[in-house]
Amino acid sequence: MENDNMNDTPSPSFRVELDNKDNGDTIKNKAKRNRISVGSVGLKTFKRLWQPHNFRVYFSFDKRFFDTKKLGEGRFNYKNHDSESEHKDLIEGCRITVKKNQVEVINLNHPDKWWLIIVQSDEELKDRISQIVDTFTYGCVKALKKLIKLYGGESDLNSMNIKYVESGISGDKEIDSIPSRLVYTDFPIY
Q1: What are the φ and ψ backbone dihedral angles of 171, each rounded to 5 degrees?
Q2: How many Å from the N-terminal Cα to the C-terminal Cα in the chain?
Q3: Which end of the chain is more exposed for a tag (fewer CB within 10 A), N or C?
């Protein structure tokens, strides 16, 4: 009678192979050795809001062919006894000041915006911040190229120095309290 009940058991919807020598122990051992993690089960992630303030990139600059009056008067403010020229309008969202041997480009494309970064390690966080810094730097290079096209001058476009002050907020309560219109979801923007 017991054999009749075993025959009534429905077969599984997936293929099962048992090694008759050890009554299924081999399958259990293989499962332990071949674990597969699906999704983020078991992986700890953390959120971090990050915001660079006053993101500046300095480039070497040769002013020999630079002409602030090329497109007409009134486009530049002159500072420090006329040794510095600051373009009055933003170029590609950047404020540009031409100094004696260098140019300062301040990226203002993302004022008051926060980057929501979701990562699993400190190393991954550093990589994401580095990618965002590269994005801001690319914007500065693009603005400098446009300034050179409009007014002349020369630069090797290799940044001499990058400066910014960063603000970071971590913790779900604090992060969730910031209005969504002020937060970029973590993704490269180029």
Answers
A1: 115, 125
A2: 71
A3: N
Pairing of strands 183-185, 114-119: parallel
Cα separation of 104 and 96, whole Å?
A: 6
**4: three-class secondary structure by DSSP:** helix
Distance, in Å, from the CA atom of 153 to the CA atom of 49, rounded to the nearest integer, reads 38
Rounded to the nearest 5 degrees, what angle is found at the Cα of 176, between the Cα atoms of 173 and 180?
Answer: 165
Query: Across the strands, what pairs with 86?
Result: 77, 97
User: Does residue 22 sit within a domain?
Assistant: no
DSSP per-residue codes, 14-51 = S-----TTTTTHHHHHHHHHT----TTTT---EEEEEE
Write out the residue range of the structural domain in which residue 165 sits: 46-185
Give residue-wise pLDDT tens across range 127-170.
888 888 888 899 999 999 999 999 999 999 887 888 876 665 55
Residue 117 lies in a domain: yes
Report the distance separating Cα 108 and Cα 140, nearest Å.
Answer: 10
In 3D space, the residue among 157, 129, 167, 154 whose CA is nearest the CA of residue 57 turns out to be 157
CB contact at 8 A, 190 and 110 = no
Tokens 């950047």 sit on residue: 94
**Within-domain flag for 15:** no
CA distances 106 to 5, 91, 140, 143, Å, are: 79, 10, 7, 10
